[in-house]
Design brief:
The protein is mainly alpha-helical. It has one domain: Formiminotetrahydrofolate cyclodeaminase monomer, up-and-down helical bundle (Four Helix Bundle (Hemerythrin (Met), subunit A), Up-down Bundle). The chain has 6 helices and no strands. Helix 2 runs antiparallel to helix 5, helix 4 runs antiparallel to helix 5 and helix 5 packs antiparallel against helix 6. It is elongated and about 75 Å long.
Length: 205
């Protein structure tokens, strides 16, 4: 499991000639990092007399961010597994007409799955951005830059995950599936870019 490796081991494997972990796993890792930073800012806020009024809010933020972080950690491995599933489908035998048909179906199904995984990552990481905004506005002001980094990491997670959706859509033949996901991708992409700009421009440092 990739998530059981040390940071150094994970990066070494990413840097190797192996195709996984790749951009999709890194997208999920970026989102998990964003969640961790959100939790950190909230934890640095709780228990401080100056921020007593937001203690309950910060505790709720920690619960949500922690849940998202655990989900995104799973997607680090799921993305790599999805890629391997696609490669396995392409390696299927195609000597007979029946084998060709089975192979074609397997490839299509695996590509749809490989497109759906990073879309989930994008959706989760987009949800993190609103939590980042809350800790920036109401959290410990001494950690405001950590909150800012959490926004940027969430943005990176969303946009990089969406690139992985797009590349998989290029090889899928189901137009209804392509159109549905394309609409979702464009919507999340637009909202993410807009929200990051709104949040960061209100940080006074």
């Amino acid at each position: 499991m990739l998530i059981d490796k040390s940071v150094a081991e994970f990066l070494d494997e990413t840097a190797s000639k192996n195709p996984v972990p790749g951009g999709g796993s890194i997208a999920a890792q970026s989102g998990a990092t964003s969640a961790a930073l959100i939790e950190m800012v909230a934890n640095l806020t709780i228990g401080k007399k100056k921020y007593e009024v937001v203690n309950e809010e910060m505790q709720e933020i920690i619960k949500k961010a922690s849940k998202y972080r655990q989900e995104l950690l799973k997607y680090i491995d799921l993305d790599s597994q999805a890629f391997n599933k696609v490669m396995k489908a392409y390696k299927m035998s195609k000597d007979t007409q029946e084998e060709k048909s089975l192979r074609k179906t397997a490839i299509e199904d695996s590509l749809k799955y490989a497109a759906s995984i990073p879309l989930e990552v994008a959706n989760i990481s987009y949800s993190l951005m609103s939590l980042s905004e809350k800790v920036i506005k109401n959290g410990n002001e001494n950690a405001v830059t950590d909150g800012a980094v959490s926004v940027m990491m969430a943005r990176t997670s969303v946009l990089s995950a969406l690139y992985n959706v797009k590349i998989n859509l290029q090889s899928i033949s189901d137009n209804n599936f392509i159109n549905k996901l394309t609409i979702e991708v464009e919507d999340i992409e637009d909202k993410t870019i807009k929200l990051e700009k709104e949040i960061l421009q209100n940080i006074d440092i």
